[in-house]
Structure formats: C-alpha cells, structure tokens
Design a protein that fits this description.
The chain is of the alpha+beta class. The protein has 2 domains: 64 residues; 81 residues, Regulator of K+ conductance, C-terminal domain (Alpha-Beta Plaits, 2-Layer Sandwich). It contains 4 helices and 10 strands; from the N terminus they run βββββαββααβββα. It has a 5-stranded antiparallel sheet. The chain has a 5-stranded antiparallel sheet with strand order 6-7-10-8-9. The chain is elongated. It starts with a strand and ends in a 21-residue tail after the last helix.
C-alpha cells in the first residue's frame, strides 16, 4: 500500500491511498478538522466524493477502523452451525501438518479430536465420504462434522504442534475402530 501526502495551502492536507487495481481513496483533512473522502478510479479523472465527516465523527470512525472497538479473529477455517453446538467446518491442511501423508484411519481424528471427515476438497476435486484409506495431502481442505469444541480442537491437531505437546500423532494404535 502506498500513501501519497500533499499540503493544501489554506485548506489542510490531502492523502491518497492506493487500495488496489489502480483505485485510490482520497482523504482531504481541512484545517477545521472536517474530512472529505473521495474515490479516484482513474488518475486522469476527477475523484468522486463518497462522504464527509466532522472531526469528532472521523476520529470515532478511525478508532473503529484501527480496531480499538473490535479485533477480528483470523481463522483459516469456515464454520457452519447445524444446530445446538454441532458444526461443519472447513480446515486447510498446511504442508507442515503432521497429518500430511497419513490416511484418515492413521490420523484417528474421530477418536482423538471428536470430528468426522465428511469430505476432502483437493484442488478442483471433492472426495465425498472418504474412507479410512484416503490419504491426507498438503493443501487439502478437510470438511469435518463435530461439536463446536471438537472443531476448534482440530485446528491444533492439524497444525504442527499445539503449544502444549498434546495430541501427538506418534502414539501407538490402540486397536480402536478407525475413521
């Protein structure tokens, strides 16, 4: 992101922010505190005024944009709630995951975490109802069904180490049913 700043003598300052595909957001801050926000699609065209804010309102909006009121939680997973506490979640398998190269039976996700893999998206292909012999590959997206808590636990299981040394994939098979 590039920001261009210019003095506007007798008015205030102008900031132009590149926001992608050649588009710029233009913010004119007047000496009175008033802000005018414009959008410029083409450098050769006049900018289109989007809105105007008082100094006080601009500062309030700025703190919201800054994250002072709410910090979003980044998630690599997509979750769909089916009902009271039951979710379908999509979880990406990173190349460093201890699951890479293991079959669903070897991964023991149902026994260890409490989720069932109901599909695997692999590029443009979707493997529906994969069996225990289906190998998990890097960049796969596992579509799982389980309680909300189990789906959350899956993230730590899919990524290398959970920070607590839990859920080791190197434990011996105890003979429990698989996948």
């Amino acid at each position: 992101m590039t920001v261009y700043e210019a003095d506007l003598p007798g008015v205030g300052k102008k900031h132009e922010i590149e926001i992608g595909d050649g588009t710029r957001l233009v913010v004119v801050t007047h000496n009175t505190g008033k802000r005018e926000v414009y959008r410029r699609g083409d450098p050769n065209e006049d900018a289109t005024k989007l809105f105007e804010l008082s100094d006080r309102l601009a500062r309030q909006v700025g703190t919201i944009l800054e994250g002072a009121y709410f910090q979003p939680v980044r998630s690599e997973a997509i979750e769909t709630m089916l009902g009271e506490g039951i979710a379908i979640e999509w979880v990406s398998v990173v190349p460093e995951s201890p699951l890479v190269g293991r079959t669903l039976a070897e991964a023991r996700l149902r026994q260890e975490v409490g989720v069932s893999v109901i599909a695997i998206q692999r590029g443009d292909e979707v493997i529906e109802n994969p069996d225990g012999e289906t190998e998990i590959r890097a960049e796969d997206t596992l579509v799982v069904l389980g309680s909300r808590e189990a789906c959350r636990s899956l993230d730590a299981y899919v990524t290398p180490g959970d920070g607590n040394g839990n859920l080791s994939l190197d434990d011996e098979d105890d003979g429990s049913p698989t996948a």
